[in-house]
Amino acid sequence: MDSTRSRGQGRKISKEHSVTEPRLTEISRAARNLKLNPRTEDDKSYPGLWWDNSGRIIVDREELSKIEVLVKISSKIKELRGNKA
């Protein structure tokens, strides 16, 4: 979901839908706003970037695909960042 990373570095959605350096708290807040029941695991990391202890969020996605969930969360983060300006 991080627009500064390439697909090879783990970005799952297009740059058009991605956000710049999303923080774990932003992702969690966006998932909570979307009623996805997020659970945060701070001690986890993406295997390709094992040294970067960025954490992960587990959500209830029901019938949505992973990509659909990522796009919705990314859009919500953009909306929340826009409200702060």
Annotated CATH topology: Phenylalanyl-tRNA Synthetase, Chain B, domain 1
- Specify the number of helices: 2
Question: What top-tier CATH class fits best?
Answer: Alpha Beta
CATH architecture: 2-Layer Sandwich
Number of structural units classed as domains = 1
- Strand order in space, largest sheet: 1-2
Briefly note the structural class of the backbone: mainly alpha
Shape: globular
CATH superfamily: Signal recognition particle, SRP19-like subunit
Give the termini separation.
21 Å
Number of strands: 2
Uncertain runs are none
Give the integer mean of the pLDDT values. 90
What portion of the residues fall into strands of 2 or more residues? 5-15%
How would you spell out the order of helices and strands?
HEEH
- The amount of helix comes to 25-40%
Output the radius of gyration.
12 Å
Main beta sheet: strand number and arrangement? 2 strands, antiparallel
